[in-house]
Amino acid sequence: LKDPSKKYKKFPPLNLPNRQWPSKTIDKPPRWLATDLRDGNQSLVDPMNGDEKWRYFKMLVELGYKEIEVSFPSASQTDFDFTRRIIETPGVVPDDVWIQVLSPCREDLIRRTVDSLKGAKKALLHIYLATSDCFRRIVFGFTQEESIDLAVKCTKFARSITKDDPSQAGTEWAFEFSPETFSDTSPEFAIRICEAVKAAWEPTTENPIIFNLPATVEMATPNVYADQIEYFCTNITEREKICVSLHPHNDRGCAVAAAELAQMAGADRVEGCLFGNGERTGNVDLVTLALNLYTQGIYPNIDFSNLNRVIDTVEICNKIPIHPRAPYGGSLVVCAFSGSHQDAIKKGFEARKEGANAYDDQWVIPYLPLDPQDIGRTYEAIIRVNSQSGKGGAAWIILRKLELDLPRGLQVAFSRVVQKNADELGRELLSDEISQLFEKTYFLKENPRFNILDYSISIDRSASPVPPASGKTQETRNLPRRFEGIVAIDGKEYQLSGRGNGPISSLANALKGVGIDLDVADYREHSIGGGRGVKAATYIECTASGTSQKVWGVGIHEDVVQSSLIALLSAASSFILSRPGSPITVKAIPRRTLSQELELNDGLKAPDNVNGQKSSEGVPSNLVNILEAKANGM
Ligand SMILES: CC(=O)SCCNC(=O)CCNC(=O)[C@H](O)C(C)(C)COP(=O)(O)OP(=O)(O)OC[C@H]1O[C@@H](n2cnc3c(N)ncnc32)[C@H](O)[C@@H]1OP(=O)(O)O
Ligand SMILES: CC(C)C(=O)C(=O)O
Ligand SMILES: [Mg+2]
Fold first, then answer.
1. Residues 6+ apart with CB under 8 A from 91
2. Please, where in the chain does CATH 3.30.160.270 lie?
3. Which of 32, 172, 309, 367 is 20 to 30 A distant from 159 in Cα terms?
């Protein structure tokens, strides 16, 4: 069998037994050069027009970039004119920002490039010449000596029309040389050509020459690039007069790693593009590099606190969407769908809020390496819910949207409802949909079955369990309570009454009269909001008497007692709905029988005339059915 992969040859590693970089760390940000408007731009289907470049340039300045490669002025009139426009418009290029432009090693093109810079305050002229065997042989037909001669000739020419030209004295000049295809160039030859260029330019410690060492094509694993950079840094002479710059491309998907290891290997500067735009698989991603530093506690000197705004501009100007999984910036990056992730994140936030984690001010949240707020993302966006989600996700959204801190049991119960819904729809449920589902499930907006219209809770003195001592007034604390109230049941109003130890149990007792026999198993309550608008939220879990069936009810009201009564009626409604085919569905009984039944029944009394409705109008069929069922002993 032929193996087509054999046409590729393994990249030979460097023999660098004393390499130092593996035990180094990155302790400060590098000098950044944003080349979005040059390397990024040259790789676009439709390169940016002047206005798009203008917008992008202003954003880069606002973000804090001090070195910006703005164009390839000899390539197009657009690039030339844009360079002129930012130089000629007062205030657009801040005094501390270097504008960099690129030219091939060709005198005519260098001349045109320098012309575009006239009047700039700080200008960085960048020229490139490919130095690998492959390029010298295939593209130029040059020997190593011929390449060196051309690089030196162009450097001298560049010098003569920039820093050596008295008419250019108003500009502070800096010079960058890129041995293009450095990553595929023999390290010894890279040193030789750069030494020659250095001698031609004559840099100083105050104004060093930039040797930009590109992985024009990423050739090998990132450690090999780091070795190449360490070799260069330790073998080039007059290191103090040199700024070693990186320019990694991402052909093997390792550009970020290569840039990081190569900084450990001694580089001072990094060239790249926001979100890794650039030739083929892109330049190294400057957002990732900067925020990687940030999450190590090192401020990168670039402000990504409103990353969404950056994304907007980048997407509009590049006409390429940012991948939803792009590090830091992707829309799905600060989202968790899966249950166990949501659970851990939620617990992390709770611990942080309560100061319960032992990390003081340090960011320690499971699954989230960065506080989304630091890049302008909201917490709401973090947890999203689909059929892969657990109780924590929906509970988080209910907490955020409705300010309801659901007890664990209710989280479990509601999660089943959410999961079923998401599964049926086959998609994510939006947070509005989840909060609406909660309101509907627990009848928060309206309870079509039971609505409490009026009620009073009184002490039932008729049943004194603790006889008062002689000469003392009756002790009321332990006396039963009596619920008397008007409850709209399926739209019609009835008077219910019942006894119990407190308001909830007396209403529960009243409900027995309509065939709803619930025991309260759990009760939780908390306040919502504060000041005058404060409300009580009550959660009641009930078991159906004599069964293991459990239902939850939720009530919200300014009055804490009424909130708990509403919660019980919410549970009662859930109970009825959870029992399809139960006694509720038996056929209706005649009204006359019903009236008799109502009178007989201790719990349910149709009022003579409440809100203009007569009891003789009858009660809804399902309740009628309950009564019928009761009468039948079901
Ligand atoms: C890795 C990088 O990103 S490098 C930057 C790449 N960016 C760009 O190329 C974007 C802008 N480029 C352009 O607008 C054009 O390519 C220009 C203006 C630079 C040159 O355009 P053209 O003169 O039409 O040449 P073209 O690009 O087609 O081909 C390059 C030619 O220059 C030759 N060449 C390259 N470098 C040199 C040099 N230093 N001296 C003399 N000739 C050179 C090549 O061998 C080739 O010659 P050939 O046509 O005889 O084979
Ligand atoms: C011009 C050089 C720096 C370049 O873009 C590259 O080699 O990738
Ligand atoms: Mg490049």
1. none
2. 450-462+478-631
3. 32
Q: Are strands 550-557 and 535-544 parallel, antiparallel or unpaired?
A: antiparallel
**What are the distances in angstroms from CA 101 to CA 125, 296, 376, 458?**
6, 32, 32, 86
Whether the pLDDT of residue 34 is over 80: the answer is yes
Q: Please report the sign of the dihedral spanned by the C-alpha atoms of residue 81, residue 82, residue 87, residue 88.
A: positive
For range 163-181, the mean pLDDT = 98
The DSSP H or E segment spanning 176 is strand 172-180
Mean per-residue pLDDT for 240-260? 99
Cα of 176 vs centre of ligand 2, distance in Å, is: 11
Q: How far is it, in rounded angstroms, from Cα 473 to Cα 467? A: 10
Mean pLDDT lowest for which of 17-21, 176-180, 271-275, 357-361?
357-361
Answer whether CATH 3.90.470.10 is correct for domain 30-318: no
CA of 247 to the centre of ligand 3 (A): 6
- Index of the ligand 2 atom closest to the CA of residue 249: 8
617 CB neighbour count, 10 Å cutoff: 9
Q: What is the pLDDT averaged over residues 49-75?
A: 98
- Tell me what pLDDT residue 36 has: 98
Rounded distance, CA 372 to CA 266, Å? Answer: 32
- Mean pLDDT, range 261-273, rounded to an integer: 99
Q: According to CATH, where is 3.20.20.70 located in the chain?
A: 30-318
What is the atom index within ligand 2 of the atom nearest the CA of 271?
Answer: 3
Find the 49 Cα to ligand 3 centroid distance in Å. Answer: 20
Task: For the domain made up of 450-462+478-631, give the CATH fold.
Answer: Double Stranded RNA Binding Domain (3.30.160)
Which 3 state secondary structure label does DSSP give 123?
A: strand
- Taking the CA of residue 279 as reference, the ligand 2 atom at the shortest distance is 8
The ipTM assigned to this model is 0.95
- Rg for the chain (alpha carbons), in Å? 38
Lowest pLDDT segment from 13-27, 426-440, 491-505? 491-505
- DSSP string computed for 541-579: EEEETTS--EEEEEEEESSHHHHHHHHHHHHHHHHHHT-
What is the value of pTM for the model shown?
A: 0.80
Task: Give the confidence band of 617 by pLDDT, cuts at 50, 70, 90.
Answer: very low
Say yes or no: CB of residue 214 within 6 Å of ligand 2: yes
249 lines ligand 2 (CB under 6 A): yes
Of 284-288, 475-479, 565-569, which gets the smallest average pLDDT?
Answer: 475-479
pLDDT tens figures, 556-579: 999 999 999 999 999 999 888 876
Written as six digits, the tokens of 483 are 């619920």
Residues contacting 460, CB < 8 A, separation 6+: 479, 480, 481, 482, 499
Ligand 1 center to 125 CA (angstroms)? 17
Average pLDDT over residues 34-47: 98
**Is the Cβ atom of 140 under 6 angstroms away from ligand 1?**
yes
What is the amino acid identity at position 529?
A: G
Contact 368 CB / ligand 1 (< 6 Å): no
Ligand with smallest separation from the Cα of 185: 2
Tell me, what's the pLDDT at 379? Answer: 62
For ligand 2, whether the C-beta of 128 sits within 6 Å is: yes
